[in-house]
Input
Amino acid sequence: MNDLMTEAYREACAHAPSDVVDLLTMELNHADLEAPLRFVDDHADLEAKIETGETVTYTRFAFEAVEPEVNVAGQPELSITIDGASAEIAQLLDGLSGSPDPVSVVMRAYRSDELDAPGRRLLPGEIRHISINTTQVTLRIGFGEIANLPFPRELYTPRRFPGLTR
Output
């Protein structure tokens, strides 16, 4: 998966004790929401710090994330399936799917013994499609056209770097 995982986090996961788990979180934000919806794929609520240093609460909620496949289109999609979603969540997501404003999604992962900052954070994305049936809700999250992003991300132009011109 094309994520922002620090080298220290990779090393920490490789050497973690068996009682330390990786906690996947999901944050949904939309203009119609008073506050972002935050969920953790765990059996208990989670209080952790995000990148800004703010402590937030993630509500326990079982979901499964299927990592995007590598394809030539350059538009990877993450699929999140929520089995047994409550009617309240299903109605809320159904209402948001009809809105012209996009629903932004930020996925973060924490180690259960290190909640001061996320160990990795996926590129922020937007929900492209919401599918709701009687037993589950499926979200398809896109991260834009990654293949068309400039590399390196910083553009070296003669105006910003006069030494490039003769």
Summary: The mean pLDDT is 80. The chain is about 10% helix and 35% strand. The helical segments are 7-14, 87-97.
